[in-house]
From TrEMBL:
It comes from Leifsonia williamsii. Belongs to the fluoride channel Fluc/FEX (TC 1.A.43) family. The lineage of its organism: Bacteria, Bacillati, Actinomycetota, Actinomycetes, Micrococcales. Keywords: Cell membrane, Ion channel, Ion transport, Membrane, Metal-binding, Sodium, Transmembrane, Transmembrane helix, Transport. The chain crosses the membrane at residues 35-59, 100-121. This is Fluoride-specific ion channel FluC.
């Protein structure tokens, strides 16, 4: 691992975090719900994109450096397991158990399906 690759992954992570902030703000300003919809959209789209990057890497020979920059860096900064976990706990504390269940389990299932779709498309 070279210093340039470490720097590129760090920059990718920063850009992913900014993309997450912008998309979350956009979703939350357009759709007024008391459910963390922005985080769900981010994690599902991020899972799809990581599946796509992985599929491209497996079949079309995406270089390992680009896998690190895109997968670990950008998509690692873009997706947010910790926020999703916090929001699920917050919903449960508010006694919004169905919303908490959908946020925890539903997001996981949607993200897995999105990752599978991205992987399949990337392998075409």
């Amino acid at each position: 691992m070279t210093p340039l690759l470490v720097l590129a992954v760090a920059v990718g992570g920063g850009l992913g975090a900014v993309a997450r902030l912008v998309l979350d703000g956009f979703v939350n300003s357009r759709v007024r719900v008391s459910f963390p919809l922005g985080t769900t959209v981010i994690n599902v789209t991020g899972s799809f994109l990581l599946g796509l990057v992985t599929g491209l890497a497996m079949v079309h020979g995406l270089p390992p450096e680009w896998r690190a920059i895109l997968g670990t860096g950008f998509l690692g900064g873009y997706t947010t397991f910790s926020t999703a976990s916090y929001e699920t706990v917050r919903l449960a504390q508010q006694r919004r158990y169905r919303a908490a269940l959908f946020n925890g389990v539903g997001m996981l299932l949607l993200a897995l399906a999105a990752a599978g779709l991205g992987l399949w498309l990337g392998q075409l």
